[in-house]
Amino acid sequence: MAPLGPFHKDNAKIWFIQAEACMNVANVTNDTIKFYYIISQLDADILFLVKDIVDAPPATDKYPTIKNRLLQLFSQDIEPKVLRLLKCRRGNEKPSHFLHRLKSLARKKIPDIILKVIFLEQVPEALRYILLVDKNADLAELGSIADEIISFELSINKAIYTRDVAIKEYHMTAICQTLSYQITQLASKLAQLKLEYTQQLSERQRKHRLKPQRNKHVPAQPDSESTEQNSELCYYHRRYGEQAHRCAIPCTWLLIKQLTNVTVANASTENEIHDP
After folding, report:
1. pLDDT tens per residue across span 99-143
2. Under a CB-based contact definition with an 8 Å cutoff, are residues 226 and 218 in contact?
3. A Pfam family this protein belongs to (predicted)?
4. How far apart are CA 142 and CA 137, in angstroms?
5. How crowded is residue 37: how many other Cβ atoms within 10 Å of its Cβ?
6. What is the pLDDT of residue 268?
7. pLDDT averaged over the chain?
């Protein structure tokens, strides 16, 4: 059969006259062939409005059924209402509220089956499959069932969110406790190391004070002064004394050395004066 032009929304009756003329020319009288021929000539947006018939064609009178539906939808009085309904979006409305809005716009001039198709297209896909199970449910029942399912889903999502937040808080608390314990342990170890270092330093200073003086002419210094001088020496001179090959600032070694030399020189001079 010859292809038809696009479906005439403004004059559906003329379009069907053309379609039937094509079928008569081709001697097509079979109801099923007529039905599928009409379907093959419809655009996707028009097929959407007869989706229920296409998905489940009646056992008899397939062609008259789809013809009457399209003529009814695109009559001059109904077409603007159908177009307004197709532009409706549910958004965050409860399904029952959205359905009530559709029925208010239809004003009992649009078949419930059309409202059902538009309604089902505006609900989540998973919910749509559940609602399609009961093919005999009317619009009010569909709206109530959809409300209950969405309410249950929201409560489940809230419970999951609450659980996830609790788990995160528990993990954060555990992490904070672990970090606090580790910081306490580190502080304890640092205090122990500081104590050991102080003890070792005191022991070294004590041993240094107990060493005999190499130069007999240098007068002995009080322990407190020796300790103070020791504390002003760098690590190398404190440990190796005159054998040190390095020096680190601050260090009083050179100053002490010079004072010692002066003291020795003065002592020698006094000895020469007193000798006959």
Report:
1. 878 777 776 667 777 788 777 877 777 787 777 777 777 777 888
2. no
3. DUF7041
4. 6
5. 19
6. 57
7. 77
Q: How confident is the model at residue 30 (pLDDT cuts 50, 70, 90)?
A: very high
Please check whether residue 61 is in contact with residue 31, taking contact to mean a CB–CB distance below 8 angstroms: yes
213 domain residue, yes or no = no
Given 118, 141, 164, the domain boundary residue is 141
Termini Cα distance of the chain: 154
Considering the domain architecture, whether residues 16 and 121 belong to the same structural domain is answered as: yes
The answer to the question of residue 88 being in a domain is yes
In a 3-state reduction of DSSP, which class is residue 74?
A: coil
Confirm if 244 and 236 have CB atoms less than 8 A apart: yes
**Alpha-carbon distance 28 to 49, whole Å?**
25
Q: Look up residue 247 and give its DSSP letter.
A: -
The answer to whether residues 91 and 77 touch, using CB atoms and an 8 Å cutoff, is no
Q: What angle do CA 268, 274, 276 make, to 5 degrees?
A: 115
| pLDDT tens, position by position, 138-165 | 777 888 888 888 878 767 777 787 777 7
In which region does residue 241 sit, left (phi positive, over 0), alpha (psi from -120 to 50) or beta (all else)? left
Distance CA 78, CA 209 (A): 114
Residues 75 and 120: their CA atoms lie apart, in Å, by 24
Give residue-wise pLDDT tens across range 214-235. Answer: 554 545 454 544 554 555 788 8
